[in-house]
Automatic annotation (TrEMBL):
Superkingdom per UniProt: Bacteria
Catalytic activity: glutaryl-CoA + oxidized [electron-transfer flavoprotein] + 2 H(+) = (2E)-butenoyl-CoA + reduced [electron-transfer flavoprotein] + CO2
SUPFAM superfamilies: Acyl-CoA dehydrogenase C-terminal domain-like, Acyl-CoA dehydrogenase NM domain-like
Domain Acyl-CoA oxidase/dehydrogenase middle: 133-223
EC number: 1.3.8.6
Membrane-crossing segments per the record: none
Xref: Gene3D superfamilies: Acyl-CoA dehydrogenase/oxidase, N-terminal domain, Butyryl-CoA Dehydrogenase, subunit A, domain 2, Butyryl-CoA Dehydrogenase, subunit A, domain 3
Residue span(s) of domain Acyl-CoA dehydrogenase/oxidase N-terminal: 18-129
Name recorded for this polypeptide: glutaryl-CoA dehydrogenase (ETF)
Length: 389
């Protein structure tokens, strides 16, 4: 048998279906041609050519790619995961762009929307002609979204929304916002065209993480919507949580890409730089670190693949997703921090991808359910005891 490939040590990609490999190669090629040379500049400036990216990702079929119909590609869950992995190997912000569009905004409309809402938005969103965002978090409601204050009240047949959403990815560039609000009937979701009077999005500045991603505060000041704007059936947190579960799935695959990028940078760097008369990679302490990175990257890849297979088989439970999100983000963050040290001073530079990934992963640890929330979910799953409050 041949020596394992340092870049796919457990030969995980050998088990991919043809479609999955084709998507991997297409996203890698797009990343190499269009993203890798520009991402450091986007990160430094905090600006993103959102419309151009949307068109590019749309043309590749990445937006809502695992959804059926309405111009979506309808791929396997693993194929979607692999696309996330390859995008996040470039930057977590770019994967977030695709996650928010496909797994949060489009998924919400696909799963809970009326036929009219689906027809109106999904084909344009799949093509990248319209961008969506997903407003759940508020200044005073993060891990505990049930305490949200945004309210929707009826006025005749209309709805009127008031409140503030915070930390909303793509909020400043979205054409449509899926907004969750309290009603007399529990929490409900609304499809809000961002051109509606009373809707404003303000950019969140001064971020030190996920800088190649646009983040916004949404202000809803008496936003008046027709009765057709509400998701007809779903009530309560089940609505938003079902969407988050989809996005978390993309994350547990995506971070494998960020970890792989850090590992590869550390391997290449320590092989090419010498101190004390030999390559850094030849020192035992460096090899200890390389071996640790190798294990974390491949173990996370294996966890992602198994969770992807469960999803394709229809047997995925949200506890599996909590397991993968917690385990893989933690692995990726450890990999990034260790790789950072291995590049010495260059490790802190934007000339190399490592510190950018490391800083990004601090956001990924927090959003879509913090590491602590997923630990509590797993604790509840194995004990039957809820420790959330
Ligand atoms: P808090 O809930 O205040 O938590 C602070 C700390 O306390 C955490 O460590 C948490 O784990 C811990 N904690 C809280 N409760 C408990 C408990 N019961 N037991 C133990 N520990 C606890 N939201 C959206 O709706 N849409 C988006 O598009 C979006 N994009 C984002 C983009 C970025 C860059 C960031 C940073 C966030 C984004 N978010 C988005 C928000 C994100 O989902 C929240 O930040 C996250 O849910 C955590 O909420 P919080 O920040 O209010 O922290």
């Amino acid at each position: 048998s041949r020596t394992p490939d340092p870049h796919d040590f457990l030969d995980l990609d050998a088990g991919l279906a043809e479609e999955e490999r084709a998507i991997r190669d297409a996203v890698r090629a797009y990343a190499k041609d269009q993203l890798l040379d520009r991402v450091a500049e986007w990160y430094e400036s905090g600006a993103l050519p959102a419309a151009e990216l949307a068109k590019g990702f749309g043309a590749l079929g990445l937006l809502g790619m695992h959804l059926e119909g309405y111009g979506c590609a309808g791929t396997s869950a693993v194929a979607y995961g692999i696309a996330c992995r390859e995008l996040e190997a470039v930057d977590s912000g770019l994967r977030s762009f695709v996650s928010v569009q496909g797994s949060l905004a489009m998924y919400a409309i696909h799963k809970w929307g009326s036929e009219e809402q689906r027809q109106e938005w999904l084909p344009r969103m799949a093509a990248g002609d319209a961008l969506g965002c997903f407003g759940l978090t508020e200044p005073d409601a993060g891990s505990d979204p049930g305490s949200m204050r945004t309210r929707a009240v009826r006025d005749g047949s209309d709805w009127v929304l008031s409140g503030t959403k915070m930390w909303i990815t793509n909020g400043t560039v979205a054409d449509v916002a899926v907004v969750w609000a309290q009603t007399d009937d529990g929490i409900r979701g609304f499809v809000v065209p961002t051109s509606t009077p009373g809707f404003t999005a303000n950019e969140v500045k001064h971020k030190l993480s996920l800088r190649a991603s646009l983040t916004a505060e949404l202000v809803l000041d008496g936003v008046r919507l027709p009765s057709s704007a509400v998701f007809p059936e779903v009530r309560g947190l089940r609505g938003p949580l079902s969407c988050l579960n989809e996005a978390r799935y993309g994350i547990l695959f995506g971070v494998v890409g960020a970890a792989r990028s850090c590992y590869e940078a550390a391997l290449e760097y320590t092989l090419s730089r010498s101190q004390f008369g030999k390559p850094l990679a030849g020192f035992q302490l460096t090899q200890r670190k390389l071996a640790d990175l190798l294990v974390e990257v491949n173990r996370a890849g294996l966890v992602a693949l198994q969770i992807g297979r469960l999803k394709d088989a229809g047997s995925l439970h949200h506890n599996h997703v909590s397991f993968g999100k917690m385990a893989n983000v933690r692995s990726a963050l450890e990999v990034a921090r260790t790789a950072r040290s291995m590049l010495g001073a260059n490790g802190i530079s934007l000339e190399y991808p490592v510190m950018r990934h490391m800083a990004n992963l601090e956001t990924v640890l927090t959003y879509e359910g913090t590491e602590e929330m997923h630990a509590l979910s797993l604790g509840q799953a194995v004990t039957g005891l809820a420790a959330f409050r």
